[in-house]
């Protein structure tokens, strides 16, 4: 599995980074980047649920 950000959908809300900073980090483009694509940390699901544009997903 792999955690991915839809850069088109991301509006730079940054709640993903605040909920799960070991996995998500804001990039220079003002959008989220995944810094640990394989993470199974519980906060990943929290971030998926909290993202206002549903930009975060998990690819199998
Ligand atoms: Fe973007 Fe959603 Fe995070 S809008 S910055 S992926 S909370």
UniProtKB/TrEMBL annotation:
What GO molecular functions are on record for this protein? electron transfer activity; iron ion binding; iron-sulfur cluster binding
Q: Give UniProt keywords alphabetically.
A: Electron transport, Iron, Iron-sulfur, Metal-binding, Transport
* Gene3D superfamilies the record matches: 3.30.70.20
Per UniProt, residues of the 4Fe-4S ferredoxin-type domain are 1-29
According to its UniProt entry, the function of this protein is described as: Ferredoxins are iron-sulfur proteins that transfer electrons in a wide variety of metabolic reactions.
Q: What is this protein called?
A: Ferredoxin
Q: Which organism is it from?
A: Petrotoga mexicana DSM 14811
């Amino acid at each position: 599995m792999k955690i991915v950000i839809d850069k088109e959908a991301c509006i730079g809300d940054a709640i993903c980074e605040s909920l799960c900073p070991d996995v998500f980090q804001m990039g220079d483009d003002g959008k989220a980047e995944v810094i640990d694509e394989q993470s199974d940390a519980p906060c990943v699901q929290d971030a998926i649920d909290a993202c206002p544009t549903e930009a975060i997903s998990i690819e199998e």
